[in-house]
Design brief:
- By secondary structure, the chain is α/β, with parallel strands linked by helices.
- It has one domain: Metallo-dependent phosphatases (Purple Acid Phosphatase, chain A, domain 2).
- It is 34% helix and 28% strand.
- The chain has seven helices and 14 strands.
- The strands form three sheets. The protein has a seven-stranded mixed β-sheet with strand order 5-6-4-3-2-12-13, covered by helices on one side.
Length: 272
């Protein structure tokens, strides 16, 4: 007789904390399928959704919500329900509709304006959202890359290049970062975790560590806190590689452990 042993989440990579921002679900720019591929291969103790997750501004103009966007929301809910993940949803300017609800805690889901994350080493990080208008650059970027695809060229982030070159944009980003540095210091935090300007980064600003998780429109980046307490910015290709390696290792372990002769065999069933 064959026995089935369920191993919850063993085929997924694990983080103490995962920080995502600027998903912009409900817009045509949202990379929902790309994000879903990652979320399905991750377990984490805490998930910080650092603003602009659902883009109400765009939904009010034109609805680009797709089944993939629904699947992302369902996966996040499943992480809270099945994996025991604490989900912290911070209000952004594009998902300002939750303003009237916060602060609010529903089981493992918390809605808030800001959140202080205590890392494994005891250092405190202020997770908070800033404010910037970005839609014009996104529209320009989308049309430019349609032209590049027609010419057989690879994707190029025009908006990232513009932000790096245009003096006013550079000045705004600098002011944004300095403002967050001051805010973190006032909250008694050694670092700040933010998103919003679609520019992933990890550096020191004075005595405050500034970590920006980027976005899931262009850069497809996140901030993770590893099991050993290391906090860093990661890109989608690295996450997919680690997920594939973990799944392969679990499959190899399953195949390398046959039941002894005369004993019931066991089938390992991985639980999503």
């Amino acid at each position: 007789m064959e026995e089935t042993i369920k191993v919850p989440g063993q085929h997924k990579i694990h983080f103490r904390t995962l920080v995502l921002s600027d998903l912009h679900l409900g817009t045509k720019d949202a990379q929902a399928r790309e994000l879903l591929d990652v979320l399905r291969g991750i377990r984490c103790d805490k998930l910080i959704l650092n603003g602009d997750i659902i883009d109400l501004w765009s939904l009010q103009r034109k609805n680009h919500w797709s089944p993939a966007h629904t699947a992302v929301v369902r996966r996040i809910m499943k992480m809270a329900e099945k994996d025991g993940t604490k989900v912290v949803y911070l209000r952004g300017n594009h998902d300002d509709f939750i303003r009237r609800l916060i602060p609010l805690v529903l089981d493992r889901i918390e809605l808030a304006e800001e959140h202080i994350h205590v890392a494994q080493d005891g250092r405190k990080y202020l997770a908070v959202v800033g404010d910037i208008s970005y839609q014009i650059l996104l529209d320009l970027n989308r049309f430019y890359n349609k032209w590049r695809a027609w010419r057989g060229k690879e994707y190029f982030s025009l908006s990232q290049a513009i932000k790096a070159k245009v003096k006013s944009a550079v000045s705004f980003i600098s002011s944004f970062e300095e403002h967050l540095q001051t805010l973190a210091a006032r909250r008694g935090c050694e670092g700040v975790m933010c998103g919003h300007i679609h520019k992933a980064e990890d550096r020191m600003i004075g005595n405050v560590r500034y970590i920006n998780s980027g976005d899931w429109v262009e850069s497809l980046t996140a901030v993770v806190e590893e099991d050993d307490g290391t906090i860093r910015v990661v890109e989608r290709p690295e996450l997919l590689r680690r997920i594939a390696e973990r799944r392969a290792a679990c499959e190899a372990a399953k195949n390398a452990s046959p039941a002894p002769a005369g004993e019931a065999s066991a089938t390992i069933a991985f639980v999503a």
